[in-house]
Structure formats: structure tokens, C-alpha cells
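Recall from the previous lesson that a structure prediction takes nothing but the amino acid sequence as input. Here we apply that procedure to Porin from Pseudoalteromonas haloplanktis. The sequence below is the only information supplied.
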Amino acid sequence: MIKTDKKLTSVSAACALAVISFAHTAHAVEYDIYGKAEVQIAKTDNGTMRFAKEGTQIDAPFSRIGIKGKHGLSDSLNVVFKYEVQVKGFENDDLGDPFRARNTYLGLAGSFGEVVIGRNDTRFKYSEGKIDNFNETQADIAQLLPGQARIGDTITYTSKSFAGAQLSLTYAPKDDRISGKDGFAATVMYGDRNLKNEHYYLALSHVDSLNNITATRIAAAWLLGNVQLGAIIQRSETAELGDKSGNGYVLSASYKLDKWLPKVQFVRDESGIHHIGTKTGQQWTAGVDYLFDKQTTGYLFYSDLDLDTKSDSSLALGLKYKF
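The prediction returns the following C-alpha cells.
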């Protein structure tokens, strides 16, 4: 006959219950710490370009760190969150302000889709997908094209995908807007904006009264073997910034050759919204990436910006690491 200590058995049972409970809680939370570290040496003629200063500069273009994840509330409902900041501490002149807010939000996800509240890319900006070959550089399409905004105090809804189509919305209440008006953006997407699961992407997007901009765009991208092509056609207008309006265009192309990725891009805008004092602006950019692996990229590009009354050019060499 085996004798058992009832007190010891009770303690063991309590410990086992605690372990099971902790394990359940731990499995309910999923999160990733991620980021991008980037350094760039750029020679820019006169500093007319956004995101670039005159002369030779060492920068850390939009380097960042963040945490994102979800917590299971039930089999069909999750809390989702993201906290992300731009890290500017690489640069000597940013010691007093090393961080800047990026996408930061909290919300719920389930069979209805996902709803988050906080700072987020507007769904108009989101519609660009991977069309911008020089994203987050001085050749970014935001140099000329209006509507590439990330704003706070917004509600973002993203539906589930239905037969390859997806709806996403941004809403901003008027009390939190400079214009004093409600603002919204709506995007319908078809295909895969990252061109990974599908080799095509198409989006129709409209923004109204966000950052004083009203605009409509069609965005499309195709992956044909090693060739990627992209295009955006956009109509923009604003009454708050001097009653300006006009069309904008983006054309981009790249070709993957082993570890090399040559790429080109043309951007033109005729609204004059982003280039104050001039009506029309256009920018040509050509460059090449060297893909060390999935996380590490070296790059070289040259960009030329032409406005009605002034021009600028920039040559940049950089290294980018994503984790």
C-alpha cells in the first residue's frame, strides 16, 4: 500500500494548475519584435527634395523598431496591437529627438475583419502596395504625389478577403482634423498587394478631407517572371491650400537577375499641392539593389527632380537590414 501526503498532493495539484493556466495564457499571446536599420550616404545638389539635405549627408532613412501581435479572447476574437517608432538616433543632429511616432494602434479582429484605433497609414496611402520602387527614400512617390499620409486619431477597418477582393476604410472625426471636417479614405483591393501569393494587384481608392486632400487613384502591379511592373493614376485637389487640382502618375519597373535588382521609376504630378510655388513636378529615378539575403539589401540610385522653377538631383549609396 502506498501512502500519500494529502498536503503535498494539494500543493502539487495547485502548481500543476498554475503551470497549465500560465501555458494557456502564454499561448494566447502572439507577438513579434521587428524593425529596420538603414544607413545611407547621399550627395544632393541643393536640398529641394524632401527627405534630403543639401550637400553630402549620412542619414538613417526611416529606421524603426516596433512590436506587433494579438491576444486570443476566444476562438473567434482577438485583440490586435502595434507600437512602432522611427529611430533617428543614428544621426548626430537628432540626439535631442531620437524617436518619432509611426503606426501605433489597438483593436479587435475576428470573422468581421479587423478594426483598430490610433495612428495608421490611411487606406489611400496603403493602396500603393509595392508599386513604389524607392519607398522611404528621397525618391519616394510622396515627393510629388499627394495623399501619402500617416495620421493619428483614426479608425481603420479592414474586411476579410472575398474571392480575392478586400475592402478597407479610414475614418477621422472632425474634432481631430486641421480642416475641422470629418475625413475618410476607402480602398477596394483585388489580388495581392505584396505580390507573393498572387502575381497581380489592382486597387481603387478615394480619400476625402484627410490632411486637406481629396483624391482618387487607380493602382496596379504585375509580376511577370522576374519582371515587376507598377502604375498609379491619380486625380488630386484641395480647397484649403489655395484651390489646387491636377493629375498625377507613377510608372515603375524592376528586373530580378540573381541577387541583383535593377529598377527605374517615373513620377509626375500636375496639382502643385506638394511643390509649393510651382504647378508641375516630375522625378526620374534609376538604381540597383544587391540582395545579400531576405533581410539585407545594399543599394545605389540616382534621382532627378524637376519643378517649374527649380530642380534637384541626388546620388545615394545605402545598406538596409530588416529584422
